[in-house]
Amino acid sequence: QVQLVESGGGLVQGGGSLRLSCAASGSIFSIADMGWYRQAPGKQRELVARITSVGSTNYVDSVKGRFTISRDNAKNTVYLQMNSLKPEDTAVYYCSMTAYSGEYWRAYWGQGTQVTVSS
Predict the structure, then answer these.
(1) Is residue 64 a contact partner of residue 50, using CB atoms and an 8 Å limit?
(2) Between the CA of residue 4 and those of 19, 41, 59, 110, 114, what are the distances in Å?
(3) Distance between CA atoms of 36 and 50, rounded to whole angstroms?
(4) 34-58 residue pLDDT tens
């Protein structure tokens, strides 16, 4: 069993910064892609940023140049540095990892952390 625990959300003024962290624990043999998603009220969940096992990244257009995803493989942790935050970034942010637990590969999800950006 693999568990993901997120931290770092909160309330911030527009233009401010936050850093989200997501640590995986449990029976982990290997982790492939790691990513951050978000879901705003009344909207579908969307991919914000993703990083592969070799460090390749991609971002949704609306956060390019403001957000940076990174990973620490030794700690099974993924980060999302969010700068120049805007009110439209307000959402619940979820991390996701594709991990091998010794039996099969599957996607795991965190419980979500609220990010609120005031205008």
Answers:
(1) no
(2) 16, 23, 21, 5, 15
(3) 6
(4) 999 999 999 999 999 999 999 999 9
